[in-house]
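Dear support,

We are seeing what looks like truncated structure output for some complexes. This example has two components. We would appreciate it if you could run it in full and send us the complete token output so we can diff it against ours.
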Amino acid sequence: MLTYVARRTLATIPVMAVVALFVFSLLFIAPGDPAAVIAGDQATPADVERIRQSLGLDRPFLVQFSDWTWRLLHFDLGRSIFTNLPVTTMIAQRVEPTLSLMVVTLLLSIVVAVPIGVLAAWKVGTWIDRAIMGFAILGFSVPVFVVGYLLAFFFALQLEWLPVQGYTPIARGLWPWLENLILPAIALGCVYIALIARITRAAMLDVLQQDYIRTARAKGLAQRPILFVHALKNASVPIVTVIGIGIALLIGGAVVTESVFAIPGLGRLTLDAILRRDYPVIQGVVLLFSFVYVLVNLAIDLLYTLLDPRIRY
Amino acid sequence: MDRRTFLKTTAGAGAIVATGGLATPAISQNAAAKTLRFVPQANLANFDPIWTTQYVVRNASVLVWDTLYGFDEDLTPQRQMVESEENSSDGLTWTFRLRPGLKFHDGAPVLAKDVTASLARWCVRDSMGQMIKALQQELTAVDDRTVKWVLKKPFPKMLLALGKNSTPMAFIMPERIAKTDPFKQIDEYIGSGPMKFVRGDWVPGAKAAFEKFADYISRQEKASWLAGGKNMLVDRIEWVIMPDPATASAALQNGEVDWWENPITDLVPLLRKNRNISVDIADPLGNIGAFRMNHLHPPFNDVKVRRAVLMALDQEEYMRALVGDDTALWKTLPGYFTPGTPLYTEEGGEILKGKRDLAAAKRLLAESSYKGEPVTCVVAQDQPITKAQGDVTAELLKRLGMNVDFVATDWGTVGQRRALKSPPGQGGWGMFHTWHAGADCVNPAVYIAIRATGDGAWFGWPNVPAVETEVDAWFAAKNLDEEKAAIKRLNKAALDSVVYAPTGFFLGYQAWRKNVNGIVKGPIPFPWDVSKTA
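Here is the complete output from our reference environment:
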């Protein structure tokens, strides 16, 4: 096992290197000019050119790439072209809101999706099953921003239960922190709940037809232990896989959700950086997301061994 | 059901209370009344008003940095940091005396050497500053409070240059900061303005905060835009960045923010229905919609093609696409200067007036050198103003019988592409859309888009000596009548050669909670004299 973990961890290095090269190349050939954005509309072409030179954006690709790589090897992601702040500082400012949003969404999704998926499988073919699957289709179909606006309209503007926007650090109290996250987490979680519920139902249906389940029923075992102890554990490998894959969904969805709810997280940082062509920030954030994704995949693979003793690395 | 009832009746509330996590409100009611929460037009991504000419940076900078002079609402420069000035009889020497007791936010006194360093940096980046610099004999600090600027030739528009509100403004910074290369951004934000920048609270893309500067010595005159007393009636201003207009609208309605700089027109009816919200015109100087044609390459290097487009152009179509049917918000503009300002003129504007004559435009196009080559029309889709204009232009060109190569892209790409002088087929462009703040179109000194100096001109690079002759005449004018005469001739020359195509004049709204008082109309959201009740 330890050898496997070490091997996988080492394998992240070439993956990250490829991501770094890919991102840097893509940004280099993509159109857009941060110098023009900085200079503003009143600037002359000569001013734009001077700013470009001062930022070093006129240097050849290889020079810029080697500079960036050298800094990266020293754990220095550089400075934002626009704010002049270190990229690591900007990321650090934004990690907590995004992490909070993802954790709350993930918890909410699992707590809601797994039970209703199990329920749908148990009540397969009934109106309960159809209602749950109908909800799942709805969850897939309605865009995050539409759900977000509807939630904000009803729960913030009409009922005045929750704030429309913003983020409060957890250090300022649990409820202030949570009240800003409830609506975004529901909006972002809809698609995730739908996905996990459908996979849970499918996996459970498969397991519930196995001989050992029939044996358990024949022994007179109650429905709850059959579903949640025997069946769910054996159906959990595909569910955990989907949860892991869903992290990517969450990252993508966070960009939209953070914009709709004005949460100052990494999603908005990424979007702002792309629109402004703030290359060091884009590179830093994409590298971070890639790294997180690689780690999540590793964690999921390791989790398999706990869920299914037959899996060994 | 209110929030308290909701909490009491849900199991979640019990769990939360059990954790002891229910925090007290972060700020008391009194403190809340002293904090003004403002949603600006854009993100404050950097904070150097000389390095960048972005309006959002200028708007934040007027809080932190003061200027020697400031425009009042009549667009007249008035003394601000200056106590007195003197211009020698030959017009060559300007002597400025600073007000006593001015301090920077770090406690240091504002000295003449700070002024000279700041003006030297500003001169490199500002078009008027460059003109002064070209005439400069010496710029010196005579003593701690006296600055002398000696020129080789008179520059009658000196006070206008120092007090204008177009970017970059002549902000005064401490000498050590002002010595930064004008093409590199500063990393210390110390000014002598009425508010201090709270650097620790700055999260670019999310928020910025400013706190009242206790040692600020306000002028005694009544505030008028950038002139007069800048009395801060709130202790703290928080800029809350909200890229999504629907979110900003909901936050304003919910009382989570106090003042929104630029609500989009579509949301204004909704805001008007809310009895807690006031809506009014933001900036009476408004904006001028525009598209610029590339004078360097076919087909727009032929003035007949440019005039054919102008003949066919219906400004009403543009304005309705841009701001809708609320006619209080827009008007057609047969000229280049901001309506309602002293130099406004319609001289030579007949080509933009009256019923559009498409047949005549087509005839003129047929007489031109245009041979059906594609017109590369670059349109930023992420800016509602450029997108709406671009859609109308595409239809206009098709009606005119031109072959449109419509390039839908984002503003960042337009910013890069419009700087390319190569032919449209080789990465260049034929036309792009933009808009100009009306405050930047009140006279030629601040109006970079009207200049027609060829290679040195703004994107599109028009080369029209007749326009530049009249710009010089305006600079040399001794009184308003002479200025007006020069501008009339300039307007006609610019329209005859189509320096660019104006698509109309439009206004925008601002909205605020009714417990906020003192908000005025202006080109900048002026926070002085703005108060808030709990």
